[in-house]
Amino acid sequence: MMKSYVIGVSGASGSGKTTFVKNLVSKVGAESVCVFSLDNYYKPLDKQIKDSNDKVNFDLPEAIDIIRFKSDLDNLLSGKKVIIKEYTFNNPKIIPRELVFEKKSIIIIEGVFIFHYDILKSILDFKIFVKTSDEKCIIRRLGRDLVERNYSTQHTLYDFEHHVWVGYEKYTKPYLKTSDIIINNDYDMEKSTEMVSIFLKSKI
Questions:
Q1: Are 21 and 124 in contact, with CB atoms under 8 Å apart?
Q2: Per the CATH hierarchy, to which homologous superfamily does domain 5-201 belong?
Q3: By CB distance 3.0 to 4.6 Å, which of 15, 33, 84, 183 could disulfide with 11?
Q4: Dihedral angle over CA of 10, 12, 15, 19, nearest 10
Q5: Which of 110, 7, 138, 116 is nearest to 60 (CA)?
Q6: Percent of the chain clearing pLDDT 90 (strictly above)
Q7: What's the rounded Cα separation, in Å, for the pair 175 and 78?
Q8: Is 37 left (phi over 0), alpha (psi -120 to 50) or beta?
């Protein structure tokens, strides 16, 4: 059976990871790439940790059901079809879709804490870190949370100050220097995406 080449893509919330991955898939070809995101594996709201102000903190590794993620990823790598329900960030205005994943030559696993979990480290063949300025991260997060997640501006700003950057500094940023490549989203991402796509095509 074909062995998939597994890539981890991490970076701060709002750094442009999802956009980078979408552009990469479009260049390499969707028929050869499966994107498997940690975002669909958040634990139920009643299982999340709250801070001292009784606010849910989603920016902790414990917020993710990493055991279920690893189990589904193992099934995917072994050639089994994986079917899950889309996570909609508790937005009542969105009806979750059924997501179907099948093994491809390249599997990209994407998420803020991808490099933090010990049980994923032996699976990763290549690690990509997407980096951008704090200001851009905040602007992107505000736009996304207001439109896609039905959060208020106050909610998003509170999360950034008390959860997002604290979690990033502790659980994500330490792996920047150990990544195989750093994509700087403050500059020309197109050139970086093209370079990585050429590399990935050699793995198909």
A1: no
A2: P-loop containing nucleotide triphosphate hydrolases (3.40.50.300)
A3: 15
A4: 40
A5: 116
A6: 69
A7: 28
A8: beta
> Helical H runs in the chain?
17-28, 66-77, 118-121, 134-148, 153-159, 165-171, 189-201
Select from 78, 77, 85 the least CA-distant residue to 44.
Answer: 85
pLDDT, tens digit, for every residue of 88-138?
876 778 788 999 999 999 999 999 999 999 999 999 999 999 998 777 777
Measure the CA–CA gap between 13 and 59, rounded to whole angstroms.
9
Q: Enumerate the domain spans of the chain.
A: 5-201
Q: DSSP label at 50?
A: B
- Residue 51 CA from chain centroid, whole number: 23
Residues in the chain, overall count: 204
